[in-house]
Design goal:
Layout: H1 4-7, H2 10-26, E1 33-39, H3 43-56, E2 60-66, H4 68-77, H5 88-99, E3 103-108, H6 120-142, E4 148-152, H7 156-162, H8 168-182, H9 190-211, E5 215-220, E6 223-229, E7 236-237, E8 240-241, E9 247-248, E10 257-259, E11 261-271, E12 276-278, E13 281-283, E14 287-291, E15 294-299, H10 304-311, E16 320-325, H11 331-334, H12 342-345, E17 351-355, H13 370-376, E18 384-388, E19 395-399, E20 405-410, E21 413-414
Parallel strand pairs: 1-2, 1-3, 3-4
Antiparallel strand pairs: 5-6, 5-19, 6-11, 7-10, 8-9, 10-16, 11-14, 12-13, 14-15, 16-17, 17-18, 19-20, 20-21
Helix pairs in contact: 2-3, 2-9, 5-6, 6-10, 7-8
C-alpha cells in the first residue's frame, strides 16, 4: 500500500511547505505582523505562506517582490552613478517593522547566474550600497532579536541553471521535488519530522559546547587551516529563541551547527569545495590564505574580480563571522545536487562565513556593546557571506585550551 507521502500531490506538498515555514520556521505568534520578500516567480508559494500566516493569526502580511528582469534593465540602461544608490527608504521601513515586532520571512529562488555577464565593478558597487542601507535591519537579524526564516521556491531561471540538460518544465519539477525532499515536507507529518531533526541538531551543539574547544584545525585537499573560536562562544543548531521570546528555525533546510570564530585567530589556507553564487555572480575555485584572522591572498578560477570586491567591502569582510559544521552525509550532500544557492549548498558541507558575526553565538552576546563584542573576537562587517569548505576528505580536530587535539570530524563525518 502506498504511503501518504507517496500520494501527496504537488499542491499538497506546496501547502506542507507553507505550513512548515510558518509553524516551524517562523513560529509566528498570533497578532504578529509578517514581512515577506520573494522573487516574482515565487508568487504561488508566497500566497500559500500568506494564507497560512493569516490562518495562524497574523495581523498583517506585507510582501515585497523582486523582479530579475527589472534588475537587468538597471545594468543595461541606468547611469553610472546609479550603482552607488540603494532604496534606503525601503530598508529603513523593514527595520522599523522589525523593531515594532514584525517577523521576517525570505523566499529565495532568484537566478544564480543573473548578473554573471554584467560589469563586476558595477555589481560590487550596487551590492555595497545595499549592504550599507540594509545594515540596521540586518543587525536585528544577526542578533536574533526577531523570529525569522528563509525558505526556497523553485523558479524557471534557477531550475535552468541547475539542470541545463533538461527541458524547462522537467527542470522546474525536478527542482521542486529536491526542495520538498530536503526541506522534509514530503512525508506524513513534516512538523513532527522537523521537531525530531531540530532535537538532533540541539544535541550535537550541546556536545560541542561541553567540549569547549579553543581552536579547530582543518586538513584536506588544498586546506590546512587553524581557526580560533571566540571567547565565550556558544554552538547553536536548528532552532533558537529570538529576542522577542519566539522559537524559530532560521534556515529551512538546515543541517548545520555553528558558532562565532575569533576575528583575529584564523591562519592557513582554505580551499572551497563548492562554487559560491553571490548576488547573481558565480565564483568558482576559491582558495584563500589567512594570517592573524585576515585574508591576505585570494584566488578564484572564475569570478575573482567579484570576490576581491566582496572582501574589500570593509575591513571585516576579510575576516570570519561564522564557522559551521555539517556532515558530508547530510541529505543535501547525499542528493548529489549542486543547488547554486547558499541556503542549500551550505547545508551540504561544513562552511565558514566572511563578515558579520552572529552575536547570539556568544554568551550574553545580545547584551554586549560593539566594543565588548570586538574584545571577545566577534567580527563586524556590512556583509555576511557563507562559502563551503567541507567534503568527504576533510578532517577536523578540536584543540583544547591545554593544547590537546581530539578528532571532531573524519572524512567529513562526525568522529
Amino acid at each position: 500500500m502506498a504511503s501518504l507521502a507517496q500520494e501527496l500531490s504537488f499542491e499538497q506538498k506546496l501547502d506542507q511547505l507553507a505550513r512548515v515555514a510558518i509553524e516551524v520556521g517562523l513560529g509566528l505568534a498570533r497578532g504578529q505582523e509578517l514581512v515577506i520578500t520573494a522573487p516574482l516567480d515565487a508568487v504561488p508559494l508566497a500566497r500559500r505562506i500568506t494564507e497560512q500566516a493569516y490562518r495562524t493569526g497574523a495581523s498583517l502580511v506585507t510582501t515585497v517582490y523582486a523582479d530579475d528582469e527589472a534588475q537587468l534593465l538597471r545594468y543595461r540602461y541606468a547611469p553610472d552613478e546609479a550603482f552607488d544608490k540603494a532604496a534606503g527608504w525601503l530598508y529603513d521601513g523593514m527595520g522599523a517593522a522589525y523593531r515594532n515586532g514584525a517577523a521576517r520571512l525570505a523566499i529565495t529562488g532568484a537566478s544564480p547566474l543573473l548578473l554573471s555577464n554584467e560589469d563586476p565593478e558595477k555589481v560590487g558597487r550596487a551590492n555595497q550600497a545595499v549592504s550599507k542601507a540594509y545594515r540596521p535591519a540586518l543587525e536585528l537579524i544577526t542578533r536574533h532579536q526577531i523570529n525569522w526564516t528563509i525558505v526556497a521556491a523553485a523558479t524557471p531561471a534557477w531550475a535552468a541553471a541547475m539542470f541545463p540538460e533538461l527541458q524547462p518544465e522537467t527542470a522546474l519539477a525536478t527542482l521542486w521535488e529536491a526542495i520538498f525532499r530536503t526541506t522534509r515536507v514530503d512525508n506524513d507529518d513534516p512538523v513532527a519530522n522537523w521537531k525530531d531533526h531540530d532535537a538532533g541538531l540541539q544535541r550535537r551543539a550541546a556536545y560541542m559546547n561541553e567540549k569547549r574547544y579553543s581552536t579547530l584545525h582543518y586538513r584536506g585537499p588544498g586546506t590546512d587551516f587553524r581557526l580560533g573560536l571566540a571567547d565565550d562562544h556558544v554552538w547553536m543548531g536548528g532552532g533558537t529563541h529570538a529576542g522577542n521570546g519566539l522559537y524559530c528555525i532560521p534556515n529551512m533546510p538546515t543541517e548545520e551547527i555553528f558558532t562565532t570564530p575569533h576575528k583575529d585567530r584564523a591562519d592557513g589556507t582554505v580551499r572551497a569545495s563548492k562554487p559560491l553564487s553571490y548576488q547573481g555572480t558565480m565564483i568558482e575555485g576559491i582558495e584563500v590564505r589567512f594570517e592573524a584572522g585576515r585574508i591576505v591572498q585570494a584566488k578564484a578560477t572564475r569570478g575573482l574580480e567579484v570576490l576581491e570586491r566582496l572582501i574589500s567591502t570593509d575591513d571585516g569582510a576579510r575576516r570570519l563571522g561564522e564557522v559551521a559544521l555539517v556532515p558530508h552525509s547530510s541529505p543535501i550532500a547525499a542528493s548529489g545536487l549542486l543547488f547554486l544557492n547558499t541556503l542549500f549548498d551550505e547545508n551540504a558541507a561544513s562552511h565558514i562565513a566572511l563578515g558579520q558575526a552572529y552575536t547570539s553565538c556568544l554568551k550574553d552576546g545580545d547584551k554586549l556593546s560593539p566594543e565588548e563584542l570586538a574584545a571577545r573576537g566577534a567580527n563586524d562587517s556590512l556583509i555576511h557571506v557563507d562559502w563551503m569548505i567541507g567534503n568527504g576528505e576533510l578532517d577536523i580536530d578540536g584543540i583544547t585550551a591545554t593544547g590537546a587535539s581530539e578528532p571532531v570530524m573524519r572524512k567529513g563525518e562526525w568522529a
